[in-house]
Specification:
The complex is a heterodimer of chains A (678) and B (181).
Chain A: H1 2-9, H2 16-34, H3 40-58, H4 60-63, H5 69-89, H6 93-99, H7 102-113, H8 116-125, H9 128-143, H10 145-153, H11 155-177, H12 191-211, H13 219-222, H14 230-260, H15 264-267, H16 283-286, H17 288-312, H18 321-340, H19 344-347, H20 350-358, H21 376-391, H22 398-418, H23 423-428, H24 430-438, E1 444-448, H25 451-455, H26 461-464, H27 492-496, E2 502-506, H28 529-547, H29 551-556, H30 560-585, H31 588-595, H32 599-615, H33 619-640, H34 645-668
Antiparallel strand pairs in A: 1-2
Helix pairs in contact in A: 2-3, 2-6, 3-5, 5-11, 5-14, 9-11, 9-12, 10-11, 12-14, 17-18, 17-20, 17-22, 18-22, 18-32, 20-22, 21-28, 21-30, 28-30, 28-32, 28-34, 30-31, 30-34, 32-33, 33-34
Chain B: H1 10-24, E1 33-40, E2 43-50, E3 57-67, E4 78-86, E5 91-98, E6 109-115, E7 119-128, E8 133-142, H2 148-151, H3 153-180
Antiparallel strand pairs in B: 1-2, 2-3, 3-6, 4-5, 4-7, 7-8
Classes of the chains: A mainly alpha (678), B alpha+beta (181).
Chain lengths: 678, 181
């Protein structure tokens, strides 16, 4: 029996959604907690509440809830009587609002939070009588055999049951704890009869389980995994509900009674110490160039190994580092980095390491030709890449991959040995352009912390450089820089700024797409046809690239059709889209601006595709990434089309919805796991 | 609320979150609906399945092996599933070993199985441990697969729900602006 017990204790679940939700909640609360009164007890209460939710839904209790009513009852008590009061003790409203992005709270939640009808409804819902009645109704209804059996037979209804226990628990405990902000709405004594009535109700319900001679839920009779009969298990469940349940109601009632008889002087405690959040420190980022060198060295080492294996190793993609590392792991990791931090690939680019070493011997003298100071060359190279990827199955050829990487080193060295600045990064590198565009939706940006300080600066070290660091090689002047376009995260400006006024700051993803201000080193987005072409190419290219690995397209794609498919999907279709939207909207300049609204959807598609290769098919995650991309695209288009919504917004929203549908169709097809042994 | 700050290292936390998510995608079988229960030799064998009902495509089968009489779970057995579907001209067969590692509930032996056709499948479960062996059979009904859009409807429902919330948000903002005037 000992081994059965140990096997039972190992029965932990790992639901991706639950873990993600709990971690995200903890992260938001923690961020808000850091920005407010740092009350340790409240933080502990919040984390304990999440821990209890994790125990209830992922521990062996969950694995055994379909076999033992007693396990299921314990799970329900945790959801109803333990997690909600802990959550309310943490006074979660203010920390959660502080932890969310300010723009989202102000623009997104603000109107709801100040909506009088909603406030009145919430006040009614959390008043003692409705809260008590809803809690009692939820408890009774879900314990009726018909509904309980429904929850046992359907995972979806089981989820609904657990959610209603938890949320009715939150409502029930609200009048008892009365979490902030705001004054207490009811005197404390109200909670005493409230809890006593709840205990009477709980006792009556428990008694039904303990003393009923009939099995209430026949499903538990189907399988017996212990010496307990189903009826004995039912009585045990009733006892669990009765004794610990009563303790949960009676102990707070007792504490409240004691509190009523305690004099105010006895209750006086020191006011909570308000700790102001410290100003962001920049010292770490000022030493970042060293970190950058280390990252570049590591990536260079990886590149050398990949090239060596690509040329000399076994020419089977799945067994060769040149097949696995660049096409599967590196692409997915750099996309993850883009989504959670920013352009970390350019920061650790190994080609720049070699280029910098080369510049010790060849100091460049020339400026990049003015006719090529745009993105057309890079856009052409991206089309070439999309075509070659399909035509030569690059992912399947370690030898060709090794050649491409070697060629990249040579090209970076040659271009930047002849031309000044980071001409290769800014005008040539297709990988760089992909990262520049995708980093428009990143949550981090190299930016100025205090613009007033820049106005008094006369040395402009961030762009000119000084004896400690070179200035921006991509000609981005920090006070006029907006968004991550053309920024390689090299951190030279961070080190060069003598006022310690440039840093890696948190921003609202994609917010930079909403403005068309003059951007240093770029100009206005609406005036840059080459930039529009690049963006559309990368957005539509995401769908073309992913479509290339599904059966219906693969069966059709042969010979000349490969080029036709890439040209039609990544070049002709975007051109036709802009033309059509400009014709309907009546303005080419506006169509150029709106084209940038598609960036989030394109990034969502790249992310869904590349993470598929790294993690396998997780359809829900892929759909969620596309959902997020579509919603951000629609929001951006909505904001950019102010004043002419019907003519401007509708065509672009339709394009976005069609692309979304294409993405969903692609992910619903059987997909080739390119370059992997599966 | 200072949006521009570097102290909360959201990047690191998010990376950890995603690694955990990746780990969590190793989907484990977790019991499910009881398909049948049979006694054979010294064993009492129960077959569970998910999803409910079983549909063509990937299904998780879990087997509970207990000693007849005492109902003690048997944890050291070698359990194999063999599913057969006979049609007029063809036979579809799938075999899979069932293991504790693939189950959330470690008292069960679980096996993910791909069923490519609909209809009645015959299930054979063979159980063997050091001293005894048993073979039980039963039947399960496999329904056609759910259309993928229907199977993932909550992830699509997010879109209209958020669109409606956005519309309400815009109405409230407009109303607030009018009230201020």
């Amino acid at each position: 029996m000992e081994s059965a017990a140990s096997a039972a204790l190992q029965s932990w679940g790992l639901s991706g959604q639950v873990i993600a939700l709990l971690l995200l909640s903890a992260l938001i609360y923690w961020r808000g907690w850091l920005r407010g009164e740092r009350n340790g007890a409240r933080l502990m209460a919040f984390l304990s509440s999440l821990m209890v939710l994790f125990l209830a839904t992922e521990s062996p209790l969950d694995a055994f809830d379909s076999l033992f009513l007693s396990a299921h009852m314990t799970q329900h008590l945790l959801l109803l009587m333990v997690a909600p009061p802990l959550l309310l003790f943490s006074h979660p409203l203010l920390p959660m609002l502080r932890g969310l992005p300010r723009a989202f709270v102000k623009e997104g939640l603000g109107p709801f939070l100040s909506w009088k009808s909603l406030q009145q409804f919430f006040a009614w819902l959390t008043a003692p009588v409705p809260a008590w009645v809803l809690f009692a109704l939820s408890t009774v209804l879900w314990h009726l055999p018909k509904f309980y059996e429904l929850a046992l037979s359907s995972p979806a209804w089981h989820g609904v049951q657990h959610a209603s226990f938890f949320w009715s628990g939150v409502l029930f405990w609200w009048p008892v704890i009365q979490p902030g902000p705001g004054k207490r709405r009811w005197p404390k004594w109200v909670a005493i009869p409230y809890l006593l009535f709840a205990d009477i109700f709980n006792t009556a319900l428990s008694a039904v389980f303990v003393f009923s001679g009939n099995l209430l839920y026949p499903s538990y009779a189907a399988v017996r995994a212990s010496h307990l009969s189903a009826l004995e298990d039912q009585s045990l469940a009733g006892l669990i509900m009765w004794v610990p349940g009563s303790i949960v109601y009676l102990v707070p009632a007792f504490v409240l009674v004691v509190g009523l008889f305690t004099t105010p002087q006895m209750r006086q405690t020191a006011p909570p110490k308000r700790v102001r959040s410290s100003k962001p420190k920049n010292s770490l980022w000022r030493s970042a160039p060293l970190f950058r060198r280390l990252a570049q060295s590591a990536m260079l080492l990886v590149a050398v190994v990949v090239v060596w294996d690509g040329f000399g190793g076994q020419q089977v993609a799945a067994l060769n580092l040149a097949g696995v590392l660049p096409w599967i792991h590196w692409r997915a990791l750099s996309m993850l980095a883009l989504l959670v931090v920013g352009n970390l690939f350019c920061l650790s680019c190994p080609f720049m390491f070699v280029r910098d070493a080369g510049r010790r011997f060849f100091a460049p003298k020339l400026r990049w030709p003015s006719a090529l100071r745009n993105k057309w060359l890079a856009a052409g190279l991206i089309v070439l890449y999309l075509w070659a990827y399909e035509a030569f199955s690059l992912w399947d050829s370690p030898w060709m991959t090794a050649w491409i990487i070697s060629g990249y080193f040579v090209a970076a060295l040659l271009v930047d040995s002849v031309f000044r600045g980071a001409s290769f990064c800014k005008y040539v590198c297709p990988i760089g352009q992909y990262h520049f565009v995708a980093s428009l939706v990143s949550p981090r940006e190299i930016a100025v912390k205090d613009r007033a300080m820049c106005r008094s600066c006369r040395t402009y070290d961030c762009i000119r450089g000084n004896e400690t660091a070179r200035g921006c090689e991509l000609y981005l002047f920090q006070p006029k820089k907006a968004g991550n376009l053309d920024c390689t995260f090299c951190l030279d400006c961070v080190k060069a700024c003598p006022h310690n006024n440039v840093g890696l700051l948190t921003v609202t993803p994609a917010k930079t797409l909403l403005s068309d201000t003059y951007r240093s080193g770029i100009g206005r987005l609406s005036k840059r046809g080459d930039m529009v072409a690049l963006v559309l190419l990368l957005v539509f290219g995401a769908f073309v690239n992913a479509a290339g690995m599904v059966d219906p397209v693969m069966m059709w794609e042969h010979g000349w059709r490969v080029g036709a498919f890439v040209l039609a999907g990544a070049v002709v279709l975007p051109l036709a889209t802009v033309w059509l939207c400009a014709a309907i909207g009546g303005s080419v300049e506006r169509a150029r601006r709106l084209a940038f609204a598609l960036v989030p959807l394109g990034v969502g598609m790249w992310a869904a595709h590349l993470l598929f290769h790294a993690l396998g098919a997780i359809l829900w995650l892929q759909i969620l990434l596309l959902d997020a991309g579509l919603l951000l695209t629609l929001y951006t288009a909505w904001r950019l089309s102010q004043g002419a919504r019907l003519k401007v917004f509708v065509p672009w929203a339709s394009v976005a919805c069609l692309l979304f549908a294409a993405g969903v169709w692609i992910f619903f097809q059987p997909m080739q796991m390119r370059g992997m042994m599966r | 609320m200072d949006l521009l700050s570097t102290d909360a290292d959201a990047g690191d936390d998010a990376l950890r979150l995603i690694s955990l998510l990746a780990l969590a995608t190793l989907a484990f079988a977790d019991g499910g609906k009881v398909q049948f229960q049979r006694k054979a030799g010294a064993f009492n064998i129960t077959l569970f399945s998910t999803p409910t009902p079983v549909r063509a495509g990937r299904a998780d089968f879990s087997v509970m092996v207990q000693k007849s009489g005492t109902e003690t779970p048997v944890l050291d057995a070698d359990v194999r599933l063999h599913l057969i579907k006979r049609e007029a001209n063809s036979i579809a067969e799938v075999s899979a070993p069932a293991r504790h590692e693939q189950a959330t509930n470690k008292l069960l032996y679980a096996a993910p199985v791909d069923l490519n056709t609909t209809g009645k499948w015959r299930v054979e479960i063979s159980v063997q441990n050091a001293s005894e062996s048993a073979l039980v059979t039963g039947e399960i009904e496999v329904l056609p697969p759910e259309p993928p859009l229907l199977a993932h409807w909550p992830y699509f429902a997010v879109l209209p729900v958020l669109a409606i919330l956005f519309a309400v948000n815009q109405v409230l903002k407009r109303r607030r602006a009018v009230n201020r005037r």
